[in-house]
Design a protein that fits this description.
Blueprint: E1 5-10, E2 13-18, H1 29-43, E3 50-55, E4 60-62, H2 77-96, E5 101-105, E6 108-110, H3 112-118, E7 122-126, E8 130-132, H4 144-154, H5 156-165, E9 169-170, H6 171-177, E10 182-184, H7 189-201, H8 205-217, H9 226-231, H10 239-249
Parallel strand pairs: 2-3, 3-5, 4-6, 5-7, 6-8, 7-10
Antiparallel strand pairs: 1-2, 8-9
Helix pairs in contact: 1-2, 4-5
């Protein structure tokens, strides 16, 4: 593990922080590796109900990969392939996390930083945040898994605009494109993220996990099996369903246990 990626757990919520503020949280190989390991571990923790991903400081979520590493870690095809495996491992771990994930974005969120945020379920940003993937300016190609994440988020036409023009978009443009869910004043990003995470935590955790699973499955064009179709009714056999129903009838807040 590395001090450049921090993980803090409080109750049912985990907060993962890109902790390299002196470099605007630029991502190096160790950080990609740590992100993959951390999110894989968090996904297995049944006590959790939400994971927040953020960047340390006010200037940047992350500007993407540390360009200085290109001379060594990505100097040729073989090294780039190995580095890509770290990137895709981290992205895959975030995307596969069973718990809802929220990206809390302040400042720059470009290149690999945007790719990380795109793997989260929700994205909340500040008014001064900036977004883009200008990698055609340095002769770097976005690989299949990374392009797939962007297409899934904003569609093919918008993805091609982002990649071919290499533009940097402001927060309102990003929201209009579907890159982010919500834009708030910069000094309210942390509070809005916390409120969003709390709303998620207060929901039935098994239901949230099922919704994530179903949404991911629907990316697959193959027809749903009868067993998959039937899983949509499994919630009615849980203690959380009975608790939620009773709480509604009794006009009180439910106390879900994830069972």
């Amino acid at each position: 593990m590395t001090d450049s990626v921090l993980c803090e757990i409080k109750g049912a919520m985990a907060r993962v922080t890109l902790n390299r503020p002196d470099k605007l949280n630029a991502l190096n190989a160790g950080m990609w590796r740590a992100l993959g390991e951390i999110f894989s571990e968090l996904s297995e923790d049944d006590s959790l109900r939400c994971v927040v991903l953020r960047g340390q400081g006010e200037r940047a979520f992350s500007p993407g990969a540390d360009i200085k590493e290109f001379e060594t870690a990505r100097a040729d095809i073989e090294k780039a392939r190995a580095y890509g495996a770290l990137m895709h491992g981290a992205m895959g771990a975030i995307g596969a996390c069973r718990h809802p994930t929220v990206a809390s974005i302040r400042g720059l969120c470009v290149g690999g930083g945007l790719e990380l945020a795109a793997m989260c379920d929700l994205r909340i940003c500040g008014k001064m945040s900036r977004f883009g993937v200008p990698i055609n300016r340095i002769g770097v190609v976005m690989a299949y898994p990374e392009i797939a994440a962007l297409i899934d988020l904003v569609g093919r036409a918008r993805t091609m605009e982002i990649l071919l023009e290499g533009r940097i978009y402001d927060a309102d443009q990003a929201a209009a494109m579907g890159l982010v869910n919500r834009v708030v004043p910069d000094d309210e990003v942390e509070a809005e993220t916390a409120a969003t995470a709390q709303r998620i935590v207060e929901g039935a955790p098994l239901v949230n996990r099922w919704h994530k699973k179903f949404a991911a499955r629907l990316r697959d064009p193959n027809p749903l099996t009868p067993e998959e179709q039937d899983e949509g009714f499994a919630a009615f056999g849980t203690e959380d369903f009975r608790e939620g129903y009773r709480a509604f009838v009794e006009k009180r807040k439910p106390d879900f246990q994830g069972r």
